[in-house]
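Chain A, query sequence.
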Amino acid sequence: MQTLLIVFYLLLPAAVIYLSHHHSWVRRIGVIVTCYLLGMLLGLTGLLPEQGRETAQLLSEVTIVFALPLLLFSLDVRRWSHVAGRALLSLLFAVSAVTCLASLLYFIYRDGTGMAANLAAMSVGVYSGGTPNLAAIKAGLDIPNAQYLAFHSLDAVVGSAYFLFMLTLGVPLFRALLPGRGVAAAVPSQDDSGEQPDEDDYRPLLERKNLAQLAVALLLALVAVALSLGVSELLATVSGGETSSALLIVSLTTLGILFSLHPRVRALVLSYRLGMYLIYVFCLAVSSLVSLGELLRMDATVAVFLLVVVFAGLALHCLLCRLAGVDGDTFMVTSVAAVGSPPFVPLMARALNNPAAILPGMTTGVIGYALGSYLGISLGLYLHSL
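Chain A, predicted structure.
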Protein backbone atom coordinates (compact mmCIF):
# COMPACT_ATOMS: atom_id res chain seq x y z
CA MET A 1 0.00 0.00 0.00
CA GLN A 2 2.80 2.42 0.92
CA THR A 3 4.62 1.74 -2.36
CA LEU A 4 1.46 2.39 -4.38
CA LEU A 5 0.91 5.68 -2.57
CA ILE A 6 4.48 6.82 -3.25
CA VAL A 7 4.11 5.95 -6.96
CA PHE A 8 0.79 7.81 -7.03
CA TYR A 9 2.29 10.95 -5.50
CA LEU A 10 5.30 10.84 -7.83
CA LEU A 11 3.30 10.35 -11.03
CA LEU A 12 0.23 12.55 -10.54
CA PRO A 13 2.17 15.83 -11.10
CA ALA A 14 3.29 14.43 -14.48
CA ALA A 15 -0.36 14.01 -15.43
CA VAL A 16 -1.09 17.59 -14.34
CA ILE A 17 1.82 18.89 -16.45
CA TYR A 18 0.47 16.93 -19.43
CA LEU A 19 -2.98 18.45 -18.94
CA SER A 20 -1.49 21.96 -18.67
CA HIS A 21 -0.10 21.56 -22.19
CA HIS A 22 -3.41 20.36 -23.63
CA HIS A 23 -6.06 22.28 -21.66
CA SER A 24 -5.92 26.06 -21.30
CA TRP A 25 -7.90 26.07 -18.04
CA VAL A 26 -5.25 23.93 -16.31
CA ARG A 27 -2.52 26.17 -17.72
CA ARG A 28 -4.30 29.26 -16.39
CA ILE A 29 -4.66 27.77 -12.92
CA GLY A 30 -1.04 26.64 -12.90
CA VAL A 31 0.61 23.31 -12.12
CA ILE A 32 1.44 24.17 -8.49
CA VAL A 33 -2.09 25.30 -7.64
CA THR A 34 -3.64 22.32 -9.48
CA CYS A 35 -1.44 19.85 -7.56
CA TYR A 36 -2.31 21.62 -4.35
CA LEU A 37 -6.06 21.52 -5.07
CA LEU A 38 -5.92 17.83 -6.01
CA GLY A 39 -4.12 17.05 -2.76
CA MET A 40 -6.69 18.98 -0.76
CA LEU A 41 -9.47 17.11 -2.53
CA LEU A 42 -7.78 13.87 -1.58
CA GLY A 43 -7.57 14.92 2.06
CA LEU A 44 -11.00 16.54 2.42
CA THR A 45 -12.88 13.63 0.84
CA GLY A 46 -11.24 11.12 3.16
CA LEU A 47 -9.86 9.10 0.23
CA LEU A 48 -6.41 9.12 1.80
CA PRO A 49 -6.25 6.22 4.29
CA GLU A 50 -5.07 7.03 7.79
CA GLN A 51 -1.83 5.07 7.33
CA GLY A 52 -1.26 7.02 4.14
CA ARG A 53 -0.86 10.26 6.09
CA GLU A 54 2.49 9.06 7.42
CA THR A 55 3.62 8.31 3.86
CA ALA A 56 2.51 11.76 2.68
CA GLN A 57 4.30 13.43 5.59
CA LEU A 58 7.53 11.55 4.89
CA LEU A 59 7.35 12.28 1.17
CA SER A 60 6.79 16.00 1.77
CA GLU A 61 9.90 16.14 3.98
CA VAL A 62 12.12 14.21 1.57
CA THR A 63 11.09 16.08 -1.57
CA ILE A 64 11.70 19.55 -0.12
CA VAL A 65 15.23 18.81 1.11
CA PHE A 66 16.23 17.48 -2.31
CA ALA A 67 14.36 20.19 -4.25
CA LEU A 68 16.16 23.09 -2.58
CA PRO A 69 19.72 22.38 -3.83
CA LEU A 70 18.42 21.22 -7.23
CA LEU A 71 16.68 24.58 -7.75
CA LEU A 72 19.89 26.46 -6.97
CA PHE A 73 22.51 24.45 -8.91
CA SER A 74 21.94 26.18 -12.27
CA LEU A 75 22.10 29.73 -10.86
CA ASP A 76 24.78 32.01 -12.27
CA VAL A 77 25.58 34.27 -9.33
CA ARG A 78 27.82 36.43 -11.55
CA ARG A 79 24.79 37.54 -13.58
CA TRP A 80 23.20 39.10 -10.53
CA SER A 81 25.67 42.02 -10.78
CA HIS A 82 24.50 42.74 -14.34
CA VAL A 83 20.91 43.41 -13.33
CA ALA A 84 19.92 47.05 -13.63
CA GLY A 85 20.44 48.90 -10.37
CA ARG A 86 16.83 50.02 -10.32
CA ALA A 87 15.63 46.40 -10.48
CA LEU A 88 17.76 45.44 -7.48
CA LEU A 89 16.62 48.59 -5.68
CA SER A 90 13.00 47.70 -6.42
CA LEU A 91 13.56 44.18 -5.08
CA LEU A 92 15.07 45.67 -1.91
CA PHE A 93 12.00 47.88 -1.51
CA ALA A 94 9.64 44.90 -2.05
CA VAL A 95 11.41 42.76 0.54
CA SER A 96 11.64 45.66 3.01
CA ALA A 97 7.92 46.41 2.63
CA VAL A 98 6.75 42.86 3.37
CA THR A 99 9.26 42.45 6.22
CA CYS A 100 8.16 45.66 7.93
CA LEU A 101 4.45 44.89 7.57
CA ALA A 102 4.79 41.25 8.66
CA SER A 103 6.78 42.33 11.72
CA LEU A 104 4.20 45.00 12.57
CA LEU A 105 1.39 42.45 12.33
CA TYR A 106 3.34 40.11 14.62
CA PHE A 107 3.39 42.73 17.39
CA ILE A 108 -0.34 43.33 16.90
CA TYR A 109 -1.40 39.66 16.94
CA ARG A 110 1.18 37.87 19.08
CA ASP A 111 -0.51 35.74 21.74
CA GLY A 112 2.19 33.48 23.12
CA THR A 113 1.34 30.51 20.84
CA GLY A 114 3.98 31.31 18.21
CA MET A 115 1.37 31.47 15.44
CA ALA A 116 1.97 35.16 14.67
CA ALA A 117 5.72 34.57 14.36
CA ASN A 118 5.11 31.66 11.98
CA LEU A 119 2.73 33.74 9.85
CA ALA A 120 5.22 36.60 9.69
CA ALA A 121 8.02 34.24 8.67
CA MET A 122 5.93 32.56 5.96
CA SER A 123 4.72 35.93 4.65
CA VAL A 124 8.26 37.23 4.25
CA GLY A 125 9.50 33.99 2.70
CA VAL A 126 6.75 33.49 0.14
CA TYR A 127 6.45 37.18 -0.83
CA SER A 128 10.17 37.67 -1.34
CA GLY A 129 10.70 34.29 -3.00
CA GLY A 130 7.98 31.75 -3.68
CA THR A 131 6.48 28.35 -2.88
CA PRO A 132 9.87 26.61 -2.45
CA ASN A 133 10.73 29.14 0.27
CA LEU A 134 7.37 28.66 1.97
CA ALA A 135 7.98 24.93 2.04
CA ALA A 136 11.51 25.43 3.35
CA ILE A 137 10.30 27.76 6.13
CA LYS A 138 7.67 25.22 7.17
CA ALA A 139 10.40 22.65 7.57
CA GLY A 140 12.92 25.05 9.09
CA LEU A 141 10.58 26.34 11.81
CA ASP A 142 8.62 23.10 12.30
CA ILE A 143 5.39 24.93 11.52
CA PRO A 144 2.28 22.78 12.19
CA ASN A 145 0.51 21.41 9.13
CA ALA A 146 -2.72 23.20 10.06
CA GLN A 147 -1.06 26.63 10.05
CA TYR A 148 0.91 25.91 6.89
CA LEU A 149 -2.11 24.60 4.98
CA ALA A 150 -4.33 27.48 6.13
CA PHE A 151 -1.70 29.96 4.94
CA HIS A 152 -1.09 28.13 1.66
CA SER A 153 -4.83 27.78 0.97
CA LEU A 154 -5.56 31.48 1.37
CA ASP A 155 -2.32 32.41 -0.40
CA ALA A 156 -3.68 30.77 -3.57
CA VAL A 157 -6.81 32.94 -3.37
CA VAL A 158 -5.09 36.20 -2.43
CA GLY A 159 -2.29 35.58 -4.92
CA SER A 160 -4.79 35.06 -7.74
CA ALA A 161 -6.56 38.32 -6.87
CA TYR A 162 -3.21 40.16 -6.78
CA PHE A 163 -2.08 38.78 -10.12
CA LEU A 164 -5.39 39.53 -11.81
CA PHE A 165 -5.16 43.11 -10.53
CA MET A 166 -1.57 43.49 -11.78
CA LEU A 167 -2.42 42.18 -15.27
CA THR A 168 -5.44 44.47 -15.66
CA LEU A 169 -5.85 47.64 -13.60
CA GLY A 170 -2.27 47.60 -12.35
CA VAL A 171 -0.66 48.28 -15.74
CA PRO A 172 -2.24 51.70 -16.43
CA LEU A 173 -2.31 52.62 -12.72
CA PHE A 174 1.37 52.06 -11.96
CA ARG A 175 2.54 53.46 -15.30
CA ALA A 176 0.67 56.63 -14.38
CA LEU A 177 2.06 56.73 -10.83
CA LEU A 178 5.67 55.88 -11.71
CA PRO A 179 8.15 57.08 -14.38
CA GLY A 180 8.52 55.55 -17.89
CA ARG A 181 9.86 52.21 -19.09
CA GLY A 182 13.41 52.01 -17.77
CA VAL A 183 13.97 48.39 -18.81
CA ALA A 184 13.21 48.90 -22.50
CA ALA A 185 16.84 48.66 -23.52
CA ALA A 186 17.42 45.32 -21.83
CA VAL A 187 17.67 42.09 -23.80
CA PRO A 188 15.67 39.09 -22.57
CA SER A 189 17.52 35.84 -22.00
CA GLN A 190 17.49 33.29 -24.81
CA ASP A 191 18.65 29.78 -25.42
CA ASP A 192 21.11 28.72 -28.14
CA SER A 193 18.39 28.66 -30.77
CA GLY A 194 17.61 32.32 -30.16
CA GLU A 195 14.15 31.56 -28.76
CA GLN A 196 12.77 31.84 -25.26
CA PRO A 197 13.23 28.51 -23.43
CA ASP A 198 10.06 26.74 -22.31
CA GLU A 199 10.54 26.24 -18.57
CA ASP A 200 7.26 24.31 -18.41
CA ASP A 201 8.47 21.59 -20.79
CA TYR A 202 9.42 18.62 -18.61
CA ARG A 203 9.84 16.13 -21.45
CA PRO A 204 13.66 16.45 -21.33
CA LEU A 205 13.55 14.73 -17.92
CA LEU A 206 12.38 11.57 -19.70
CA GLU A 207 14.92 11.58 -22.54
CA ARG A 208 17.65 8.96 -22.33
CA LYS A 209 20.37 11.39 -23.40
CA ASN A 210 19.72 13.47 -20.28
CA LEU A 211 19.85 10.63 -17.77
CA ALA A 212 23.54 11.20 -17.03
CA GLN A 213 22.95 14.90 -16.28
CA LEU A 214 20.00 14.10 -14.01
CA ALA A 215 21.99 11.39 -12.21
CA VAL A 216 24.84 13.83 -11.53
CA ALA A 217 22.38 16.48 -10.28
CA LEU A 218 20.72 13.99 -7.94
CA LEU A 219 24.11 12.79 -6.68
CA LEU A 220 25.17 16.36 -5.91
CA ALA A 221 21.84 16.98 -4.19
CA LEU A 222 22.42 13.84 -2.12
CA VAL A 223 25.87 15.13 -1.15
CA ALA A 224 24.36 18.48 -0.15
CA VAL A 225 21.67 16.76 1.93
CA ALA A 226 24.20 14.45 3.60
CA LEU A 227 26.56 17.32 4.46
CA SER A 228 23.70 19.45 5.78
CA LEU A 229 22.41 16.59 7.94
CA GLY A 230 25.95 16.02 9.20
CA VAL A 231 26.41 19.68 10.16
CA SER A 232 23.01 19.75 11.88
CA GLU A 233 23.73 16.55 13.83
CA LEU A 234 27.24 17.74 14.77
CA LEU A 235 26.02 21.04 16.18
CA ALA A 236 23.19 19.28 17.99
CA THR A 237 25.73 16.95 19.62
CA VAL A 238 28.06 19.80 20.57
CA SER A 239 25.26 21.96 21.97
CA GLY A 240 23.47 19.05 23.62
CA GLY A 241 20.19 20.05 22.00
CA GLU A 242 17.98 18.64 19.26
CA THR A 243 18.68 18.66 15.55
CA SER A 244 17.76 22.05 14.07
CA SER A 245 15.48 22.03 11.02
CA ALA A 246 16.33 25.70 10.45
CA LEU A 247 20.05 24.94 10.28
CA LEU A 248 19.37 22.07 7.88
CA ILE A 249 17.43 24.28 5.46
CA VAL A 250 19.93 27.15 5.64
CA SER A 251 22.80 24.69 5.07
CA LEU A 252 21.05 23.23 2.03
CA THR A 253 20.49 26.70 0.57
CA THR A 254 24.10 27.73 1.20
CA LEU A 255 25.55 24.54 -0.31
CA GLY A 256 23.26 24.84 -3.33
CA ILE A 257 24.59 28.34 -4.04
CA LEU A 258 28.23 27.31 -3.38
CA PHE A 259 27.92 24.34 -5.75
CA SER A 260 26.47 26.64 -8.40
CA LEU A 261 29.73 28.61 -8.46
CA HIS A 262 31.34 25.75 -10.40
CA PRO A 263 30.67 26.03 -14.16
CA ARG A 264 30.10 22.30 -14.58
CA VAL A 265 27.41 22.38 -11.90
CA ARG A 266 25.74 25.39 -13.53
CA ALA A 267 25.75 23.42 -16.78
CA LEU A 268 23.26 21.00 -15.17
CA VAL A 269 20.39 23.07 -16.57
CA LEU A 270 17.78 20.35 -16.00
CA SER A 271 18.38 20.39 -12.25
CA TYR A 272 15.98 23.34 -11.92
CA ARG A 273 13.13 21.49 -13.62
CA LEU A 274 13.81 18.37 -11.59
CA GLY A 275 13.71 20.48 -8.43
CA MET A 276 10.44 22.11 -9.50
CA TYR A 277 8.94 18.69 -10.20
CA LEU A 278 9.79 17.69 -6.64
CA ILE A 279 8.07 20.89 -5.48
CA TYR A 280 4.93 19.74 -7.33
CA VAL A 281 5.13 16.40 -5.50
CA PHE A 282 5.61 18.28 -2.22
CA CYS A 283 2.51 20.42 -2.87
CA LEU A 284 0.44 17.32 -3.62
CA ALA A 285 1.70 15.41 -0.57
CA VAL A 286 1.49 18.18 2.01
CA SER A 287 -1.94 19.42 0.87
CA SER A 288 -3.37 15.90 1.11
CA LEU A 289 -2.73 16.09 4.87
CA VAL A 290 -5.45 18.72 5.26
CA SER A 291 -8.63 17.79 7.08
CA LEU A 292 -12.02 19.47 7.05
CA GLY A 293 -11.86 19.99 10.79
CA GLU A 294 -8.58 21.87 10.52
CA LEU A 295 -9.95 24.21 7.86
CA LEU A 296 -13.07 24.94 9.92
CA ARG A 297 -10.82 25.94 12.79
CA MET A 298 -8.82 28.31 10.55
CA ASP A 299 -7.92 31.56 12.34
CA ALA A 300 -9.00 34.83 10.70
CA THR A 301 -5.54 36.14 11.59
CA VAL A 302 -4.16 34.23 8.57
CA ALA A 303 -6.40 36.22 6.20
CA VAL A 304 -5.37 39.51 7.82
CA PHE A 305 -1.67 38.70 7.44
CA LEU A 306 -2.05 37.78 3.76
CA LEU A 307 -4.24 40.70 2.72
CA VAL A 308 -2.20 43.33 4.55
CA VAL A 309 1.22 42.00 3.54
CA VAL A 310 0.26 41.60 -0.14
CA PHE A 311 -1.81 44.71 -0.85
CA ALA A 312 -0.47 47.16 1.73
CA GLY A 313 2.99 45.84 0.84
CA LEU A 314 2.27 46.60 -2.83
CA ALA A 315 1.28 50.18 -1.95
CA LEU A 316 4.36 50.72 0.24
CA HIS A 317 6.59 49.19 -2.44
CA CYS A 318 5.09 51.58 -5.01
CA LEU A 319 5.62 54.59 -2.74
CA LEU A 320 9.28 53.73 -2.16
CA CYS A 321 9.85 53.23 -5.90
CA ARG A 322 8.23 56.59 -6.66
CA LEU A 323 10.47 58.34 -4.14
CA ALA A 324 13.55 56.64 -5.65
CA GLY A 325 12.53 57.25 -9.27
CA VAL A 326 12.15 53.55 -10.20
CA ASP A 327 10.12 53.16 -13.41
CA GLY A 328 6.69 51.52 -13.53
CA ASP A 329 7.62 48.48 -15.63
CA THR A 330 10.57 47.59 -13.39
CA PHE A 331 8.36 48.00 -10.33
CA MET A 332 5.67 45.70 -11.75
CA VAL A 333 7.94 42.86 -12.89
CA THR A 334 9.93 42.86 -9.65
CA SER A 335 6.73 42.96 -7.61
CA VAL A 336 5.31 40.00 -9.54
CA ALA A 337 8.63 38.16 -9.22
CA ALA A 338 8.55 38.63 -5.44
CA VAL A 339 4.84 38.06 -4.75
CA GLY A 340 4.07 35.56 -7.51
CA SER A 341 7.56 34.04 -8.16
CA PRO A 342 9.63 34.10 -11.40
CA PRO A 343 7.32 31.87 -13.53
CA PHE A 344 4.76 34.71 -13.55
CA VAL A 345 7.23 37.29 -14.89
CA PRO A 346 6.84 36.47 -18.62
CA LEU A 347 3.05 36.87 -18.31
CA MET A 348 3.52 40.28 -16.69
CA ALA A 349 6.02 41.30 -19.36
CA ARG A 350 3.51 40.26 -22.02
CA ALA A 351 0.79 42.37 -20.38
CA LEU A 352 3.23 45.28 -20.38
CA ASN A 353 4.09 44.62 -24.04
CA ASN A 354 7.70 44.89 -22.93
CA PRO A 355 9.66 41.63 -23.45
CA ALA A 356 12.83 43.33 -22.22
CA ALA A 357 11.32 43.34 -18.73
CA ILE A 358 11.71 39.57 -18.50
CA LEU A 359 15.43 39.56 -17.67
CA PRO A 360 15.36 41.90 -14.62
CA GLY A 361 12.14 40.29 -13.42
CA MET A 362 13.42 36.73 -13.68
CA THR A 363 16.82 37.57 -12.20
CA THR A 364 15.44 39.43 -9.20
CA GLY A 365 12.94 36.58 -8.76
CA VAL A 366 15.79 34.08 -8.60
CA ILE A 367 17.59 36.29 -6.08
CA GLY A 368 14.36 36.28 -4.08
CA TYR A 369 14.32 32.47 -4.23
CA ALA A 370 17.85 32.41 -2.82
CA LEU A 371 17.14 34.94 -0.06
CA GLY A 372 13.57 34.00 0.87
CA SER A 373 14.45 31.04 3.07
CA TYR A 374 17.17 32.99 4.90
CA LEU A 375 14.87 35.96 5.54
CA GLY A 376 11.83 33.95 6.57
CA ILE A 377 13.63 31.55 8.89
CA SER A 378 15.79 34.32 10.41
CA LEU A 379 12.76 36.51 11.09
CA GLY A 380 10.82 33.55 12.49
CA LEU A 381 13.61 32.55 14.87
CA TYR A 382 14.04 36.14 16.02
CA LEU A 383 10.33 36.70 16.65
CA HIS A 384 10.02 33.36 18.47
CA SER A 385 12.85 34.47 20.78
CA LEU A 386 11.04 37.67 21.86
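Residues 211-239 form the longest helix (29 residues). Confidence is low (pLDDT under 50) at residues 184-197.
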